[in-house]
Design brief:
Elements lengths: L6 E2 L9 E5 H10 L10 E3 L2 E8 L2 E5 L2 E5 L4 E4 L4 E3 L8 E7 L28 E2 L10 H11 L7 H23 L6 H17 L6 H7 L4 H12 L3 H19 L4 H7 L5 H12 L3 H7 L1
Helix pairs in contact: 2-3, 4-6, 5-6, 7-9, 7-10, 8-9
Protein backbone atom coordinates (compact mmCIF):
# COMPACT_ATOMS: atom_id res chain seq x y z
CA UNK A 1 0.00 0.00 0.00
CA UNK A 2 1.28 3.44 -0.92
CA UNK A 3 2.10 6.04 1.72
CA UNK A 4 -0.35 8.39 0.02
CA UNK A 5 -3.14 7.86 -2.52
CA UNK A 6 -1.59 7.13 -5.93
CA UNK A 7 -2.63 9.94 -8.27
CA UNK A 8 -2.73 9.41 -12.00
CA UNK A 9 -2.63 12.48 -14.24
CA UNK A 10 -3.50 12.85 -17.89
CA UNK A 11 -0.37 12.80 -20.06
CA UNK A 12 0.61 16.45 -20.47
CA UNK A 13 2.35 15.77 -23.79
CA UNK A 14 -0.83 14.31 -25.28
CA UNK A 15 -1.60 16.86 -28.00
CA UNK A 16 -5.13 15.62 -28.69
CA UNK A 17 -6.14 15.88 -25.00
CA UNK A 18 -8.14 12.69 -25.45
CA UNK A 19 -7.34 8.98 -25.72
CA UNK A 20 -9.70 6.35 -27.13
CA UNK A 21 -9.06 2.61 -26.80
CA UNK A 22 -11.01 -0.59 -27.10
CA UNK A 23 -10.91 -2.85 -24.05
CA UNK A 24 -8.14 -5.01 -25.52
CA UNK A 25 -5.94 -1.97 -26.07
CA UNK A 26 -6.89 -0.66 -22.62
CA UNK A 27 -5.89 -3.92 -20.93
CA UNK A 28 -2.53 -3.92 -22.71
CA UNK A 29 -1.88 -0.37 -21.53
CA UNK A 30 -2.94 -1.12 -17.96
CA UNK A 31 -0.60 -4.10 -17.75
CA UNK A 32 2.30 -1.95 -18.95
CA UNK A 33 1.55 0.91 -16.54
CA UNK A 34 2.06 -1.07 -13.34
CA UNK A 35 5.54 0.39 -12.86
CA UNK A 36 3.97 3.77 -12.06
CA UNK A 37 0.87 2.53 -10.22
CA UNK A 38 -1.24 -0.58 -10.08
CA UNK A 39 -4.44 0.19 -12.05
CA UNK A 40 -6.06 -2.85 -10.45
CA UNK A 41 -5.73 -1.28 -7.01
CA UNK A 42 -7.35 1.96 -5.76
CA UNK A 43 -5.92 5.15 -7.26
CA UNK A 44 -7.19 8.69 -7.77
CA UNK A 45 -7.60 9.95 -11.31
CA UNK A 46 -7.07 13.58 -12.32
CA UNK A 47 -9.04 13.30 -15.55
CA UNK A 48 -12.32 11.88 -16.84
CA UNK A 49 -13.09 8.32 -17.95
CA UNK A 50 -16.03 6.95 -19.93
CA UNK A 51 -16.39 3.17 -20.17
CA UNK A 52 -18.87 1.76 -22.69
CA UNK A 53 -19.47 -2.00 -22.79
CA UNK A 54 -20.40 -3.59 -26.12
CA UNK A 55 -20.12 -7.30 -25.32
CA UNK A 56 -20.55 -9.44 -22.20
CA UNK A 57 -20.39 -7.72 -18.79
CA UNK A 58 -17.82 -5.75 -16.85
CA UNK A 59 -17.68 -4.64 -13.19
CA UNK A 60 -15.81 -1.49 -12.22
CA UNK A 61 -15.14 -0.07 -8.74
CA UNK A 62 -15.46 3.64 -7.97
CA UNK A 63 -15.38 5.07 -4.44
CA UNK A 64 -16.14 1.76 -2.67
CA UNK A 65 -19.06 0.89 -4.94
CA UNK A 66 -19.17 -1.71 -7.69
CA UNK A 67 -20.93 -0.90 -10.94
CA UNK A 68 -22.10 -3.77 -13.13
CA UNK A 69 -22.12 -2.84 -16.81
CA UNK A 70 -23.98 -4.83 -19.43
CA UNK A 71 -23.99 -4.52 -23.21
CA UNK A 72 -24.72 -0.90 -24.05
CA UNK A 73 -24.06 0.37 -20.51
CA UNK A 74 -21.91 3.48 -20.00
CA UNK A 75 -20.09 4.50 -16.82
CA UNK A 76 -18.94 8.09 -16.27
CA UNK A 77 -16.06 8.58 -13.81
CA UNK A 78 -15.03 12.09 -12.84
CA UNK A 79 -11.67 13.53 -11.83
CA UNK A 80 -10.60 13.14 -8.18
CA UNK A 81 -12.56 9.92 -7.73
CA UNK A 82 -10.80 6.83 -6.46
CA UNK A 83 -11.31 3.89 -8.78
CA UNK A 84 -9.74 0.69 -10.04
CA UNK A 85 -10.12 -1.74 -12.91
CA UNK A 86 -11.07 -5.39 -12.42
CA UNK A 87 -9.72 -8.50 -14.07
CA UNK A 88 -12.96 -9.30 -15.90
CA UNK A 89 -12.00 -6.55 -18.32
CA UNK A 90 -10.38 -9.48 -20.15
CA UNK A 91 -13.76 -11.06 -20.85
CA UNK A 92 -15.63 -7.97 -22.01
CA UNK A 93 -15.51 -5.79 -25.11
CA UNK A 94 -16.06 -2.07 -25.25
CA UNK A 95 -14.57 1.39 -25.60
CA UNK A 96 -12.67 3.50 -23.07
CA UNK A 97 -12.52 7.27 -23.54
CA UNK A 98 -10.05 9.23 -21.40
CA UNK A 99 -9.78 13.00 -21.51
CA UNK A 100 -8.64 15.92 -19.41
CA UNK A 101 -10.75 18.77 -18.16
CA UNK A 102 -10.72 20.86 -21.33
CA UNK A 103 -14.46 20.47 -21.84
CA UNK A 104 -15.14 21.42 -18.24
CA UNK A 105 -13.04 24.57 -18.23
CA UNK A 106 -15.62 27.25 -18.93
CA UNK A 107 -17.58 24.69 -20.98
CA UNK A 108 -14.98 24.75 -23.75
CA UNK A 109 -17.26 24.15 -26.72
CA UNK A 110 -20.78 24.37 -25.32
CA UNK A 111 -23.22 27.20 -25.82
CA UNK A 112 -24.03 29.42 -22.84
CA UNK A 113 -27.33 27.62 -22.35
CA UNK A 114 -25.83 24.13 -22.15
CA UNK A 115 -23.73 22.92 -19.24
CA UNK A 116 -22.84 19.37 -18.26
CA UNK A 117 -23.96 19.83 -14.66
CA UNK A 118 -25.50 16.39 -14.21
CA UNK A 119 -23.27 14.14 -16.27
CA UNK A 120 -20.23 13.87 -14.00
CA UNK A 121 -22.00 14.84 -10.79
CA UNK A 122 -21.97 11.54 -8.92
CA UNK A 123 -23.31 13.24 -5.77
CA UNK A 124 -26.81 13.57 -7.27
CA UNK A 125 -26.82 11.21 -10.26
CA UNK A 126 -26.24 7.53 -10.89
CA UNK A 127 -23.00 7.48 -12.93
CA UNK A 128 -24.30 4.67 -15.16
CA UNK A 129 -26.55 4.96 -18.18
CA UNK A 130 -27.97 1.68 -19.44
CA UNK A 131 -29.02 1.03 -23.02
CA UNK A 132 -32.72 0.78 -22.14
CA UNK A 133 -32.58 4.42 -20.98
CA UNK A 134 -31.38 5.53 -24.41
CA UNK A 135 -34.58 4.52 -26.25
CA UNK A 136 -33.81 4.22 -29.95
CA UNK A 137 -30.57 6.12 -29.45
CA UNK A 138 -27.18 4.73 -28.43
CA UNK A 139 -23.80 5.90 -27.24
CA UNK A 140 -22.07 2.83 -28.65
CA UNK A 141 -21.99 4.04 -32.25
CA UNK A 142 -20.57 7.43 -31.29
CA UNK A 143 -17.89 5.76 -29.18
CA UNK A 144 -16.96 3.56 -32.13
CA UNK A 145 -16.72 6.66 -34.34
CA UNK A 146 -14.45 8.25 -31.76
CA UNK A 147 -12.26 5.14 -31.76
CA UNK A 148 -12.06 5.07 -35.57
CA UNK A 149 -11.19 8.77 -35.79
CA UNK A 150 -8.65 8.58 -32.97
CA UNK A 151 -6.74 5.84 -34.79
CA UNK A 152 -7.11 7.49 -38.20
CA UNK A 153 -3.68 8.24 -39.68
CA UNK A 154 -4.98 11.37 -41.40
CA UNK A 155 -4.26 14.19 -38.96
CA UNK A 156 -6.21 16.92 -40.76
CA UNK A 157 -8.72 18.52 -38.34
CA UNK A 158 -8.38 15.46 -36.13
CA UNK A 159 -8.60 17.31 -32.83
CA UNK A 160 -11.66 19.25 -33.99
CA UNK A 161 -13.44 16.11 -35.19
CA UNK A 162 -12.71 14.29 -31.94
CA UNK A 163 -13.97 17.27 -29.93
CA UNK A 164 -17.16 17.37 -32.00
CA UNK A 165 -17.81 13.64 -31.58
CA UNK A 166 -17.12 13.85 -27.85
CA UNK A 167 -19.50 16.80 -27.63
CA UNK A 168 -22.27 14.76 -29.27
CA UNK A 169 -21.69 11.83 -26.92
CA UNK A 170 -21.69 14.02 -23.81
CA UNK A 171 -24.79 15.95 -24.84
CA UNK A 172 -26.75 12.78 -25.63
CA UNK A 173 -25.77 11.42 -22.22
CA UNK A 174 -26.70 14.70 -20.51
CA UNK A 175 -30.09 14.53 -22.24
CA UNK A 176 -30.74 11.14 -20.62
CA UNK A 177 -29.75 12.59 -17.25
CA UNK A 178 -32.08 15.52 -17.84
CA UNK A 179 -35.04 13.23 -18.57
CA UNK A 180 -34.57 11.11 -15.46
CA UNK A 181 -33.79 13.99 -13.10
CA UNK A 182 -36.12 15.59 -10.57
CA UNK A 183 -38.80 17.66 -12.29
CA UNK A 184 -39.13 21.38 -11.64
CA UNK A 185 -35.43 21.94 -11.11
CA UNK A 186 -34.20 25.38 -12.15
CA UNK A 187 -30.84 25.68 -13.87
CA UNK A 188 -29.45 28.21 -11.40
CA UNK A 189 -30.26 25.83 -8.52
CA UNK A 190 -28.19 23.15 -10.20
CA UNK A 191 -25.39 25.60 -10.94
CA UNK A 192 -25.35 26.71 -7.30
CA UNK A 193 -25.18 23.10 -6.14
CA UNK A 194 -22.28 22.37 -8.52
CA UNK A 195 -20.46 25.49 -7.29
CA UNK A 196 -21.00 24.32 -3.70
CA UNK A 197 -19.69 20.86 -4.51
CA UNK A 198 -16.60 22.27 -6.25
CA UNK A 199 -15.91 24.64 -3.36
CA UNK A 200 -16.31 21.80 -0.87
CA UNK A 201 -13.76 19.68 -2.73
CA UNK A 202 -11.19 22.43 -2.30
CA UNK A 203 -12.07 23.66 1.17
CA UNK A 204 -13.36 20.69 3.18
CA UNK A 205 -10.10 20.34 5.10
CA UNK A 206 -10.39 23.98 6.17
CA UNK A 207 -14.04 24.05 7.24
CA UNK A 208 -17.09 21.83 7.52
CA UNK A 209 -19.35 24.77 8.41
CA UNK A 210 -22.20 24.97 5.89
CA UNK A 211 -22.87 28.62 6.75
CA UNK A 212 -19.34 29.54 5.69
CA UNK A 213 -19.90 27.85 2.33
CA UNK A 214 -23.15 29.75 1.86
CA UNK A 215 -21.31 33.00 2.60
CA UNK A 216 -18.55 32.18 0.10
CA UNK A 217 -21.19 31.45 -2.54
CA UNK A 218 -22.98 34.72 -1.76
CA UNK A 219 -26.27 32.95 -1.00
CA UNK A 220 -28.26 32.59 2.19
CA UNK A 221 -27.76 29.53 4.35
CA UNK A 222 -31.45 28.66 3.93
CA UNK A 223 -31.19 28.81 0.14
CA UNK A 224 -28.11 26.56 0.09
CA UNK A 225 -29.69 24.12 2.53
CA UNK A 226 -32.91 23.97 0.49
CA UNK A 227 -31.00 23.29 -2.74
CA UNK A 228 -28.88 20.52 -1.22
CA UNK A 229 -32.02 18.94 0.26
CA UNK A 230 -33.78 19.10 -3.10
CA UNK A 231 -30.97 17.34 -4.92
CA UNK A 232 -29.72 14.87 -2.32
CA UNK A 233 -32.40 14.56 0.33
CA UNK A 234 -29.81 15.65 2.89
CA UNK A 235 -29.16 18.88 4.74
CA UNK A 236 -26.03 20.80 3.75
CA UNK A 237 -24.38 19.71 7.00
CA UNK A 238 -25.10 16.01 6.41
CA UNK A 239 -23.91 16.31 2.81
CA UNK A 240 -20.64 17.84 3.98
CA UNK A 241 -20.19 15.15 6.62
CA UNK A 242 -20.83 12.42 4.02
CA UNK A 243 -18.32 14.04 1.67
CA UNK A 244 -15.62 14.16 4.36
CA UNK A 245 -16.40 10.56 5.33
CA UNK A 246 -15.73 9.42 1.76
CA UNK A 247 -12.44 11.32 1.74
CA UNK A 248 -11.38 9.57 4.95
CA UNK A 249 -12.37 6.22 3.45
CA UNK A 250 -10.25 6.96 0.39
CA UNK A 251 -7.19 7.56 2.54
CA UNK A 252 -7.83 4.53 4.73
CA UNK A 253 -8.34 2.14 1.81
CA UNK A 254 -5.70 3.50 -0.55
CA UNK A 255 -2.77 4.58 1.62
CA UNK A 256 -0.63 3.54 4.54
CA UNK A 257 -1.05 6.90 6.26
CA UNK A 258 -1.68 6.66 9.98
CA UNK A 259 -5.00 7.70 11.50
CA UNK A 260 -3.22 10.73 12.92
CA UNK A 261 -1.90 11.76 9.50
CA UNK A 262 -5.29 11.25 7.87
CA UNK A 263 -7.02 13.29 10.55
CA UNK A 264 -4.78 16.28 9.81
CA UNK A 265 -5.19 15.90 6.05
CA UNK A 266 -8.98 15.91 6.37
CA UNK A 267 -9.20 18.93 8.65
CA UNK A 268 -9.33 17.54 12.19
CA UNK A 269 -7.16 19.14 14.84
CA UNK A 270 -7.20 16.03 17.01
CA UNK A 271 -7.15 12.39 15.79
CA UNK A 272 -9.67 11.47 18.48
CA UNK A 273 -12.17 13.86 16.94
CA UNK A 274 -11.75 12.26 13.51
CA UNK A 275 -12.20 8.77 14.99
CA UNK A 276 -15.38 9.88 16.73
CA UNK A 277 -16.66 11.57 13.56
CA UNK A 278 -15.91 8.54 11.38
CA UNK A 279 -17.48 6.06 13.76
CA UNK A 280 -20.61 8.19 14.02
CA UNK A 281 -20.99 8.22 10.22
CA UNK A 282 -20.00 4.62 9.46
CA UNK A 283 -20.37 2.67 12.75
CA UNK A 284 -16.75 1.52 12.21
CA UNK A 285 -13.52 2.77 13.70
CA UNK A 286 -11.01 3.87 11.03
CA UNK A 287 -8.75 0.90 11.74
CA UNK A 288 -11.64 -1.57 11.52
CA UNK A 289 -12.67 -0.09 8.17
CA UNK A 290 -9.10 -0.35 6.89
CA UNK A 291 -8.86 -3.99 7.97
CA UNK A 292 -12.06 -4.82 6.07
CA UNK A 293 -10.75 -3.17 2.94
Amino acid sequence: MEKDIPKVAFAEDHKLRIEVMNFKQLLEKLLKSQDDHNPFEPHKIEFYIILIVTKNTYTHFVDFKSYALNEGSTLFITKNQVQYFTDNLRNAAGTCIIFNSFFDDKSYYLSKNLKLNRLFNYHIENPVIHQNEMGNDSLVQIAQQLHTEYHNTDGFAKSEILSSLLQVLLLKAERVKEHRSISGIKNHWLETFVSFKNLLENEYANTRNSRIYASKLLVSYKFLNDIVKRFTGKTAKVFIDDFVTIEIKRYLASTSLSVKEISYKTGFEEPANMVKFFKKNTTFTPLKFRQQQ
